[in-house]
User: What shape does this take?
Amino acid sequence: MSPSSDYETVARALRYLDDNYLDQPSLDELAGALGLSKYHLQRLFTRWAGVSPKRFLQFLTLEHAKRLLQESEPVLATAFASGLSGPARLHDLFINTEGVTPGEYKSGGLSLRIGYGFHPTPFGDALLAATERGLCHLAFLGSDRDSDRDDALAGLKEEWPGASLAESAGTTGHFARAIFNPGEGSPPKAPLSLFLKGTNFQLKVWNALLRIPSGAVTTYGRLARAMGSSGSARAVGSAVGRNSIAYLIPCHRVIREMGDFGQYRWGPTRKGAMLAWESAQRAS
Assistant: This one.
């Protein structure tokens, strides 16, 4: 089984638990609802997340989210202390960002060549796209593979209407491995480059998101204050929602003040799974 296939089963489990949370279903009941044995479900969660289903579900509770917000405060204070300039990091890989020029923004990427490819990830299949200047798109697909591929490509074309698109899984595979399988192959010789299409304010927000380490979370208000824009939490939230490079620019690490995970462009179930997965990696 691939990590992407494992995720689909995990997502089904989380949706079942969300629909039946008042009944507090047992592990046996959950496994039965998924058509699996209890032992198979136990192995699957351990393989995908590194922890048991029971331990994983603890990372999805409101109490854990509130505690994580509190624990993340000093971590983020250190991360933002040096400002938002300079490269961010993913694993042991540095990340550089470059924004489109005003002319490229206005034309929707006219004359740009973009290669794209579909790749499995620990959070389901994803569409990655890149120019010669860096990764410009990462979007997760849903469960209906064929129609979701069409929808994902349509979204890419809408984002870059003036660009020339061509399938190039070999090119995007390099990015997929660096992001989701950093231990495979030779270590990268250069920083991972992101090529971002957004307003100056959106770029500032996305660079701020890159400072939030795995296993930490923040809120829209705290992110705004860290950027020196304490009165613009709503604008920050809008910019977070416009992020088109999922996971790598970690908009999933921004939650609501009371600990509720909130909405997510690629689905609230996936957001919860990603946050719990990162907490599990941190704890293991």
Summary: The chain is about 50% helix and 15% strand.
